[in-house]
Amino acid sequence: MLYMTLKYGSGGEKGGAPMNATERFRSGVLANANRGGENVATGALIGALLGAQCGYSGLPKDLLRGLARSQREQLDSEIDAFVAAVPLARM
């Protein structure tokens, strides 16, 4: 999990060229999904770490459109509660 986060994190490259945040997020979560096996927990962690690094605006728009509206509202409220509870998140 740490290897993939580092590989697809801020230094991620594709064909020798640096990837932007959206490409890094997409590549990281897809690589995790394609590795097979028990990848649900690592996928959640990789998605959270890469998502935090690229920010909400850097998430692939087609993946966000795939969320049901009720899921989106729940996700937004959970993120707000997390940010309010974690002192380091407000820095």
Structural summary, described in words:
The chain is 64% helix and 4% strand. The radius of gyration is 14 Å and the shape is globular. A hairpin with a 2-residue loop joins strand 1 (13-14) and strand 2 (17-18). The protein has helices at residues 2-8, 21-34, 40-54, 61-65, 69-85; strands at 13-14, 17-18. It starts with a helix and ends in a 6-residue tail after the last helix. The protein has five helices and two strands; from the N terminus they run αββαααα. A two-stranded antiparallel ribbon has the order 1-2. By secondary structure, it is mainly alpha-helical. It folds into two domains: 1-59, no CATH class; 61-91.
Name the features.
single chain, 91 residues, mainly alpha, 2 domains, two-stranded antiparallel ribbon, 64% helix
Give the overall silhouette: globular
Q: What percentage of residues falls in helices of 4 or more residues?
A: 55-70%
Main sheet?
A: 2 strands, antiparallel
Strand order, sheet with most strands: 1-2
Quaternary arrangement of the chains shown? Answer: single chain
Total helix count? Answer: 5
Provide the low-confidence segments as ranges: none
Number of individual domains: 2
What Rg is obtained from the alpha carbons, in whole angstroms? 14 Å
Number of strands: 2
